[in-house]
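User: I'll paste a sequence; please echo it back and then give the predicted structure.

Assistant: Echoing your sequence first, then the prediction.
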Amino acid sequence: MSLRLLMPFLFLLLSACHQIPVQDIQGSLGELSRFDSYRWGWPALKGGGRHDQDLLLQDRLVRESVGQQLTALGLAQRAEDQTASLVVDYKLLFTPEQYANLEQPQGGWVWKRDQEGELQRSRVDPNATITLDRATLNVTVFNSDKSQVIWEGQASDLVDHSHPPEQIIRAIQKMVKGLFVR
């Protein structure tokens, strides 16, 4: 069977997979209702360099999104130095993955942003692959002394770092929302 005949099917399959974050949940959100408060396991990130800005934005966004979900469950946030019945930690990882060039299977021209954010016209090799990052968010909720995991959720989604930061923001929000579906 010709690869050309399979391209539309592969494109639909990749598009469908891209729309739904992969999720893995351990424990029940109902378990969290037995508790009244939470705090973060470590202080919010601080920094000043150009690359630090992306990390600061991601840290703030994860904390805000997860915090909104926990508040909706009836938990009050406490400062890092205050006592709380739960401790929340998270990890956000970006792992590069290679995919066939499905946007321009015949080659052609595309517009891409360079490192300064300027649009540049470039030729597409029909045999080239594209690299997307698999963003994986793992949220773990412990009891106050971190001796027992009460709830843990993991979600992942594909993001393209060559696009504006809004795509990463939407991916993080979508992953958090998917984790806390009741």
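Residues 57 and 119 are 23 Å apart (CA to CA). The chain has a mean pLDDT of 78.
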